[in-house]
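Hi support team,

I submitted a single chain yesterday and got back a structure, but I'm not sure I'm reading the token output correctly. Could someone confirm the output below corresponds to the sequence I sent? I've pasted both exactly as they appear in my results page.

Thanks,
R.
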Amino acid sequence: MNRPNNTRDNYETYVWFRQAAERGDAYAQFNLGLMYKKGDCIERDYTAAFKWLRQAAMQGLAFAQNHLGALYYNGRGVEKSDPEAAYWFRNAAEQGDASAQQNLGQMYRKGRGLEQNHELALAWFYRAAEQGVSSAQNLLAECYLFGHGATVNYPLAMAWFRKAAVQGHAQAQLNLGLMYKRGLGVEASDAQALCWFRQAAAQGAAVAQRHLGIAYADALGVRADPLRAVAWLQRAADQNDREAQYQLGVFLSSGKGVDQDEIRALNWYQRAAEQGHPNAQYNLGNMYANGRGAARDERRALEWYRRAADQGAANAQFNLGVIFANGRGVPRDDVRAAHWYRLAAEQGDASAQNNLGVMYAGGHGVPQDDALAVYWYRQAAERNHALAQFNLGSMYEAGRGVARDIVHAYMWLLLAAEGGHETASANKSIVARRLSPAEIGSALDLTRQWQVSHAAASQALAQRN
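Hi R., thanks for writing in. Yes, this is the structure output for that exact sequence:
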């Protein structure tokens, strides 16, 4: 036994527990097992902990049964066994041990050692929650929030989150803040959300710290304060919260309200990117592509764009298309360019849609097909992409992939010109000379109708967001 820093009283306690445990006293066996499990006054020894906790558990002591289940669950002092863990948790839970009730609920929730059953998980969480266990109250609330074992019930979720939150349970405080932020079962309130985020953040909850940082950044329930935003994001980022790392990179690279520091920005993007954050991977690719925060490195840029693209990031897919189409740091490859443009285009990236149209119009990397060129130009043009509008207007003017229609050609050139496309500004005057006043009037009417309909659609989208 190793007890260099133990007091005499602690040693005598150990001796008493040992003597009583060897005489078969269940409580002494439990306490002795707990001392070995925690390394309290003696050197930690999970094998010895298992021995004594099992003896106490076999005598029916619920506390010992719950701790014995935990040893089986984690494989400490004994071979890991989920069925054995569930067995001992159940024995303790049926005697009313709240911790065991929560643990048994977790076994049902995860399907470990037992067939997954969300209804039974909820039932055991409820029994522990009724005994005031804050962690069980939080788990019960999550069942009602996500509809696990019961229908979704926001008021019940909020009630149980609140019970746990007022006891100081950090995850419940965070969850309560998120409900207020998202308006789930309650009127959305950034101020109320901020109140609960603060409490969870003060306890070190990384996600709460991140939300608190974003609140200071975007003036959500509090006055904008970039320095505090960075400070809270830093705390969360230091705990390896990848979203906080990404947001911190955005702050430092933009220099919005704080000193711009592209070297630190690149470092945070790198850390988030290595955890698989697609936007961080894309931004890190941009940093290397443009020589910001580090020497320009096209190979690394390509690597990070590809990682983001493989996760479905349309902006990275578009950039890969540009890289292969232009042979930037790689051999030119129109087939690969078209592949990446297509993936981004199918996600609604207007620039990729336009470029894919160009590939079809010229037969680069894909079979030449004017109809498909018009299709992709139109997809981008409807998203107010000026170059695509110019290209679509040119197809109407030439009658390529679509019936020749000078009125619609003029309409798309007008829209492109208003979008700042210089060639469209020059070409629309040439096309106008070939139209009658009535046709020009029709083109102007079509242009206004398009603008009105798209303005209404943009406003509706903004309101939904």
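A quick pointer for reading it: The two ends are 64 Å apart (CA to CA). Let us know if anything else looks off.

Best,
Support desk
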